[in-house]
Amino acid sequence: MTRATLRSHAILGVVALFCLFPVYWLLATSLRRPGDIYSLAPFPWPLTFENYAGAADKADVPGLLINTTFTAVSSTAIQLFIAILSAYGFAMHQFRFKRVLYLAFIATWLIPFQVTMLPNYLLLHQLGLLNTLAGVVLPTMCSVLAVLMLRQHLDSFPKELVAAAKMDGLSSWRTLWQVVVPNLRPALAALSILLFINSWNEYFWPAVVLQQRNAVLQLGLRSFMSAEGNDWGPMMALAAMSCLPVFLLYLAMQRRVVSAFVRSGLK
């Protein structure tokens, strides 16, 4: 191993420790005794699950997990479905003003969310979807990032396979789902992980739409904040539990995710 390689590994190790330390401190704080919450000892001892019990007593943890999973999975699935159709249309079909429409579509990515927040809120109010999980999912159905990434993958997709499918009599719809999509699994896997994590961590929009404090995990954390002070122990315990599904998902799909990110150019 050369000196340059060792130096690179050392830098990566320091960066990894810097990134992992907040997660470790969250877990360590959640496992401290209530009287040791403000302790700066790096290793909590004795370990206790009192904070987890306190979080379960004060918040409906199963309900929060179910609601958050529903919004994250629904938003990810709809975004993937719309992205597949949009990218397939832009990449495989020729029509008038195609380039202009694509550029206009991509330009919407440059509009800050705060600009569209008020129109979205008024529309949800007129539809009667405020304070519902559907109101959280509806404005996030289309992801420009997802369309952009899939369009790039489809531009390099072998056009001979599509032509052969048409010669076999497959319609455009069947060509998409029987020929194109199965060959996009690595890209779809990487993209679905990104979309899921983004939706899982979303805080601002659910806080605007949902008036219930205990609707999703991100808002449930506010239950432990008050004017008299923050209840750090149960808050850290609930935060640790909110990280658990994403962590388990990554462990279950680790090999596929790494392979998908490398093959899709995401590093």
Automatic annotation (TrEMBL):
How does the entry describe its membrane topology?
Answer: Multi-pass membrane protein
Q: Where is the ABC transmembrane type-1 domain?
A: 65-253
Cellular location(s): Cell membrane
UniProt keywords (A-Z) are: Cell membrane, Membrane, Transmembrane, Transmembrane helix, Transport
Alphabetical GO CC annotations of the entry are: plasma membrane
| Swiss-Prot/TrEMBL GO biological process terms | transmembrane transport
Q: Which domain of life is it from?
A: Bacteria
According to the record, the segments passing through the membrane are 9-27, 64-88, 100-123, 129-150, 176-197, 232-253
Q: What Gene3D superfamilies does the record tag this protein with?
A: MetI-like (1.10.3720.10)
Q: Which InterPro entries match?
A: MetI-like (IPR000515), MetI-like_sf (IPR035906)
Q: Which Pfam families match?
A: BPD_transp_1
Which family does the record assign?
Answer: Belongs to the binding-protein-dependent transport system permease family.
The name under which this protein is listed is: Carbohydrate ABC transporter membrane protein 2 (CUT1 family)
